[in-house]
Amino acid sequence: MRTETDFLGNEMTFDCMGCDITSGKLMVPGGVIYRGDIAVLAADPEVPIPGFLVVNVSRHIRSLSELNSAERHEVVDVAAAAERALKSLGISEVTLVQEERSSHFHIWVFPNYNWMTEQFGKGVSYLRDIMHYADDRADDATRQEVLATIEKVRDYFKEHGIVE
Ligand SMILES: [Zn+2]
Predict the structure, then answer these.
(1) CA–CA separation, 76 vs 28, rounded Å?
(2) What is the CATH number of domain 2-156?
(3) For an engineered disulfide with 91, which of 50, 71, 86, 158 has Cβ 3.0 to 4.6 Å away?
């Protein structure tokens, strides 16, 4: 069991964060945004950046190459719909990241904001610095904005589904 603190200050206890989010055992801030048969979309529970989303797959696997065809399709459909949702909110660019060093396959859908580019530059090498910065600076207004963005993305999924 591991314990981490989510960005609202609540304790999260889990064996595998991906398994526990997709099974519904672990409640994340703002709740699950979209739940498919295979893929589940939620906000990153630890980093308070509006529109920072995570696509999880239900099965405990590590790599893209382990996904079967149905899983690949749904995971990519959800990631693409998440991108469209963020772009509909005025975010002009997103970065997708998947790292095999995590034991449970997930894709980060990371929004780019002007303040990130101005202070850190662009590209995956800056993501950790941006996350630490956002975490250090987050106040109640930021956390409310993150939660409001989750609701907007949820509305987008309700209206448009995952396949355009
Ligand atoms: Zn897992």
Answers:
(1) 22
(2) 3.30.428.10
(3) 86
Residue 53: name the closest of 24, 23, 26, 21 by CA. Answer: 21
The rounded Å distance from CA 23 to ligand 1 centre is 10
pTM of the predicted structure, to 2 decimals:
0.96
Q: Ion ligand 1 — residues with CB under 5 Å?
A: 16, 18-19, 60, 104
Place of tokens 């609202």: 8
Q: Where are the domains of the chain?
A: 2-156
Q: Residues 40-63: pLDDT tens digits?
A: 999 999 999 999 999 999 999 999
